[in-house]
Structure formats: structure tokens, C-alpha cells
Amino acid sequence: MAGLPLYDAVVPTLIKGLTTFDHVLTKAEEYAKENNKDVNEFTQARLVEDQLPFAFQVQNASKAAQVAIGRLTGTEPAFFENTEKTFEDLHKRIQKTLEELKAVDPAVVNSRAGEQVDLLIPWAGTTQKVPVGQAVLTHNFPNFYFHLTTGYSILRAKGVPLGKRDFLESFLGF
């Protein structure tokens, strides 16, 4: 990854991940229609009882992208309210986040690659100063992928016919 500009490593990857999330939502809608189900029941679906629901997974993937944008641009994220109740709402949230990502200026991101930002370590109750690139790649990406993978897994566990291709296709550009 040496020589890869920070913008190129981060922003297109987040865009592809949110495109994947939008795709799995569409697959869930198709599945629900084919099986005479209300797709919006999936918004509160979970893998286990003490897990947060599917809608939360979409909201927090979006939030991880917004935090990354803030770190990459040196701006304070303007977080969306977590008010989504339907799949239509979730699609709209993904689209708003994609619009924010597409508006990020590559020159700004690349100029900030080595700048220090605060990285909260919640379980330790501390904050560390780390370079922007490290914060995004070691905090935002794992958090983003956690919620993307969990959302995908919830829908798959509920019967939506999702496969590895559905997860990887937008990352590979096919």
C-alpha cells in the first residue's frame, strides 16, 4: 500500500461498502416481496437477543463513514439522527452518506494524512494522538466493516438469499 494516497485507500472503499449495504437492502426487499413478507420487519431483526437491530447496523456504518470524513477533512461530523424506521429510510440514509463521501476533496484528505487526531479508546477511558490515516484504517474501517458484516449476516440469517458475491461485488467493481 506504499505510495497509495490516503483518499484513494479510504473514500472509494467506504463508497463501495455503502453500495454493498444498499444492495443487500434491495435483495431483502426482493425476498420479502417474493415471500409476501413485510420487509420493514427486518429493521428490528437481530442475530441474538442482546444485539442491536439491523437498522442500527446501517446507521452505525453510516456514522463510521461520517467520523472518517471528519477525520479526513478536519471537520466536525454533522451526524444524522437515528430516526430510520423503514427500508426506504435506510436507503435514504445510505444515499445521504454516499453524497457526503462523494463531496470529499481528495487534495484536502491527502494533505492531512500525517496530521494527528484524537482517537478515543473507550474501554480504557483514554484518548491517544495518532495520524489521521492510522485512525481511519485502524478504527473507522474495522467499525465500518463490523456493522456492514453484521447487517449482512442478520439478513442472511432471516432467509434473505445473500452470498459472498453480494458482499464483494461492489468492492471488486463488477
TrEMBL record:
InterPro entries: DinB/YfiT-like, DUF1993
Xref: Pfam families: DUF1993
Domain of life per record: Eukaryota
Protein name: DUF1993 domain-containing protein
